[in-house]
Automatic annotation (TrEMBL):
Function description: Part of the ABC transporter complex MalEFGK involved in maltose/maltodextrin import. Probably responsible for the translocation of the substrate across the membrane.
Cited InterPro entries: MalF_N, MalF_P2, MalF_P2_sf, MetI-like, MetI-like_sf
Entry protein name: Maltose/maltodextrin transport system permease protein
The keyword Transport is assigned to this record: yes
Subunit structure: The complex is composed of two ATP-binding proteins (MalK), two transmembrane proteins (MalG and MalF) and a solute-binding protein (MalE).
Source species of the chain: Roseateles amylovorans
Amino acid sequence: MNATTASTSALAATLPDSPLAEAYSRQAPGLLERLARGLYWPVVALIALAALYLVFTLYVAGQTWWALGAMALFGSGFAVYLSQAGLAYRYLFPGVTGMLLFIAFPLAYTTQIGFTNYSSAHLLSQERVREYLLEQHDAVLDEVRDYSLHADGAAFRLVLRDPATGAVRFVSPSLALRQVDKPFVVTLQAAPDAGLPTMSGGEVPWGPALSLKDLVAHRAALAQLRLHLPGRTDEAATLHYLGLREFGPIRPHFQEQADGALKRLADGAIFRPDAKTGYYQGEGAAAGTHLSPGYKVMVGAQNYARMVLDAEFRGPFLSIFSWTVVFSLLTVVCSTAIGMMLAVLLNWEDLRFRTTYRTLLFLPYAVPGFISILVFKGLFNQNFGEINAILDALFGVKPAWFADPLLAKTMLLIVNVWLGYPYIMILCAGLLKAIPSDLYEASAIAGAGPLTNFFKITAPLIIKPLSPLLVSAFAFNFNNFVLIALLTDGRPDYLSTKIPAGQTDILVSYTYRIAFRDSGTDFGLAAAISTLIFVLVAALSLLNLRLMRKANQ
C-alpha cells in the first residue's frame, strides 16, 4: 500500500496537468484535514492539563487569588476558542487579555499598595511576623554539645560528646536522615546503655565521622532533628541544631498568649498587634516601643493625606510638583519655538545647502538619548567640562552647574530642549508642506513681510494640528525619568527634609527615590504618588483626545 501511494504521488508529480495529478491534489488536503481533526482534541486536552497544573501549583503555594485569576483567564480562553458563541471575540481576546494583565492589573495593584503602609519595615504579613518573632531564640551556652555523624550501614548515628573531655556521652538510634518538612523528636541513649565498650576513649564502633562536606549535604535533615536527653524533663532536655558542629537547648525570646499577644520572656513585657501602625506595640513598662519587623496593614488615605497635611513632606513635594509642571511646559514651549523657527528657515527654497543643514539639525534626534545626556554631563562638568572652559576663557566665570539649584534646572532645560527640538522641527516641516502657496502669494501682493506671514499664516495653520502632539510631548516630559537620573540624579538635595528630595527631581524620579533609594523604600507612599501621576497623565490624555477630535473636525 505504501509503495503504491509513493508511486502514485511520484507519477502525479511528473504529470502535473494530468487527471491523476488533479485527483491527488484534491485528496492531499483531505488527508491533512483529517490529520488535524484527529490531533485537535488531544492538543486541547494537553493545554487544559497544563493550565490545571499551573492553577493547582499556585493554589498549593498558598496563592489562592492568583490561582483564581489564572483559572478565570484560562476558563475565558477555552470558552472563547472552543465554543461557537465566542467566535466574534477570538480576535479581541488576546488584546483584552494583554490590556488586563499589563495595564489594568499593575494599575489596580499599585493603587491598592497606595492605601497600605508597605515599606522595607513592613514587608511581611502579620502571621509571618508572628512566626518570625516566635522563632527568635538564644542558645543555652552551658548546655551546648559537640556532635559527630557516623555512617551505620545505610543509616547514620549521631554521637554527642562531652565538650570538656571529648568522651562519648549520648548516641542516637539509627537515622535515615531523609529530608522532611516538620521537626521530629529523637530520644538519645546514654553511652553505657548503647553498648559502647570504648566510650571513655571517645571511639565508636561505626565508621569514621563524616567530613564537613558530607555534613553540609545532610544539613536540611539535621536542622529538623530535636534530640531529647534521657532522664530529663526540664526545658534544656531538648537539643536543637545550632550549626555544623553543635546541638544544644534554646531559650525563646517570646511566648504567644491566648489573646494573640506576645510576651517577652526576658522581662515579661506584653506586645499586642496594632492594626494602625502595623507593629506589635508594647504595653505597661514597654509602652512606646514596638517589635521589628512590622507587618503590612491598610492605612486608608494616610499616604495621600501626607502630601497635604504633613508640613515637612508637603514643602518639598509641592516644590517638586511645581518644578515638574514648569519643566515640562518650558521644554515644550522652547522646543516648539526653536523647532518651528528652524522648519520655517529650512523651508526657504533659496537657502543653499538646505539638505546639509537639515541633516545636521536632525542629528540630536538620531543619536540615542542616553548617550547625548552622558555627553552633556561631561560638557557641563564644573572643573573639566568644555562649556566652563569656554566661559572661563571669555568671561572668567565657571558656573557650578550641578551644585546651584537654578543652574542645575537651567542645564536640564538646555539638554532637554536639545533632545526635543528635532522632533518638533520634523513635524513642522511636514505641516508646512500642507499650507497652500496661494496664501503667501496673496500676502506678498498685499505687501506683508516674513514676520507677518509667520504670525498671520504659518503659525495659526500649524499650531492647530500640532496641539495634540504638543500635549503628548508635555505628558512625556512629565515622566522624563531618564534625563533626571542620568544628568543630575535629582541633586542638589533639599536640606532638613523628612524624606530625602532633590531640587531637580520631578515627580517620577522623586517616586523612584522614595520607593528604592534614600528614604527606606516606602512603597506605599511611592504607590500613592504614582497613582497621582497616573491621574494627571490620564487627564492630559483625555485633553489630547479632545484636541485631536477638534483638529479633525
